[in-house]
Amino acid sequence: MAEHTPTPWSATEQRDWLEHSCCHDAAITAFENGKRQTIAEAHSSEDAAFIVKAANNHDALVKALTDLLDDKQTTYAVRVLRARAALASVGGVDRG
Predict the structure, then answer these.
(1) What residues contact 64, with CB distance under 8 A and at least 6 apart?
(2) Residues whose CB falls within 8 Å of the CB of residue 48, separated by 6 or more in sequence, listed in order
(3) How many CB atoms lie within 10 A of CB 20?
(4) What pLDDT is recorded for position 17?
(5) pLDDT in the model for residue 21
(6) Are strands 35-42 and 26-32 parallel, antiparallel or unpaired?
(7) Contacts of 46 (CB under 8 A, 6+ apart)
(8) Which residues, 6 or more positions from 5, have their beta carbon under 8 angstroms from its beta carbon?
(9) Which is nearest to 45 in space by CA: 82, 3, 14?
(10) What is the model's pLDDT at position 20?
(11) Cβ of 26: how many Cβ atoms within 10 Å?
């Protein structure tokens, strides 16, 4: 499988990025090969922001969850606190 475009990604509503698009109001952009490139389009700025947030936080959340699962030395309570901290760092909901 090919690697995804490196993060960080960002979202923009600038229509001049989307001159060729008839039905998208936002672009998802990233630096690739030293310049900003449009890598995807979204129907709304809210959709673009959601996609960007998920992409930019994916690696950190996977690492945090993997570390929690691999940690056999720490108590369950401490691992729950770390999981909550990881969620909070990306605006997740604390269901505690």
Answers:
(1) 82, 83, 86
(2) 11, 12, 13, 26, 27, 28, 42
(3) 8
(4) 47
(5) 53
(6) antiparallel
(7) none
(8) 30, 32, 37, 39
(9) 14
(10) 53
(11) 25
Six token digits for residue 4? 């995804």
Say if CB 19 and CB 56 are below 8 A apart: no
Task: Provide the pLDDT for residue 22.
Answer: 55
Backbone angles phi, psi at 49, to 5 degrees: -65, -40
Residue 69 has a pLDDT of: 85
Q: How far apart are CA 39 and CA 17, in angstroms?
A: 11
The mean pLDDT values, 10 residues at a time, for the chain of 96 residues are 82 62 74 85 87 89 86 87 83 67
Distance between CA atoms of 15 and 90, rounded to whole angstroms?
28
**Which residue has tokens 């698009």?**
21
Please tell me the distance from the alpha carbon of residue 76 to that of residue 33, in angstroms, as a whole number.
Answer: 44
Walk across the sheet containing 9-12 and list its strands. Answer: 9-12, 26-32, 35-42
Cα Rg of the chain (Å, integer): 17
